[in-house]
Amino acid sequence: MSIINEIKASFREGNVLTKLIYVNVGVFVVIKLLQLTFMLFGAGSAFVQILIGWLSVPSNPLALMWRPWTLISYMFLHYDFFHLLFNVLYLYWFGRLFVELVDTGKLLTVYIWGGLGGAAFYLLAFNLLPAFYPGAGGAILLGASASVMAILFAVARIHPNHVVYLFLIGPVKLKYLALGAFLVDLISIPGMANAGGHLAHIGGALVGLYYGWRLTEGKIKGNFFDKVAYRAGALFERRSKMKVTYKRPLTDMEYNAQKVRRQKELDRILEKIKHSGYDSLSKEEKELLFKASQEN
User: Does domain 3-234 correspond to CATH entry 1.10.10.10?
Assistant: First the structure.
């Protein structure tokens, strides 16, 4: 299998987290290839800069009215390699925690809501706070960090005492990790070098905190945006063609292993109901629980 086919297969078969990482990396690679192409043909990078501007959130509300799609496109866009690298690493780490501790089906919802919240906070600050008036009209916002912060704060709100192990630090509870990240962004704003980015991080964190609280209280019952995000995620799902297959009977060892895996999945679902309520379950989880209840 070629590398391209392997990447396609990995994308099709991966979960929402895998697809989000692929989209972020893919957009970055396309931008860089375009930049390289224009440079080799002597066109410079002006076209790429224009493209970046058309995909990033402008701080000027009038410009935003002409480019409303930027509220979504910016959260998948990176121009600097290290910006992409750290955002993808954080997305992988915090996304895995969300998938394991909360709900895979809601990861895309939190990602997009966090990005929208970050953009809203950035726009309000740059248009209402006097500190950002000079030159604010030319500022742009791009990157997945607001969405990543939303994921971190959502899972930290739902499982605040879950312990993670940090290099050179050791065990740290999620609530302290989230608080530390929030304080870093807060004290970094006066530097003004990336004030817009830090403001967006805070907006994403607040959205994640609110969403985590709503999910904990069992008040997320598939609202409009949940349904939109679910359908958007379904577009990524692999659609298999109908075919007839013949399977050999399972051996005793395979049957027992399958039974153990199913029991672990049921235990995870029951634990999720305990913490977040029945309404937090995905459609597949509810079907699995129903089937298990019918067999008993």
Answer: no
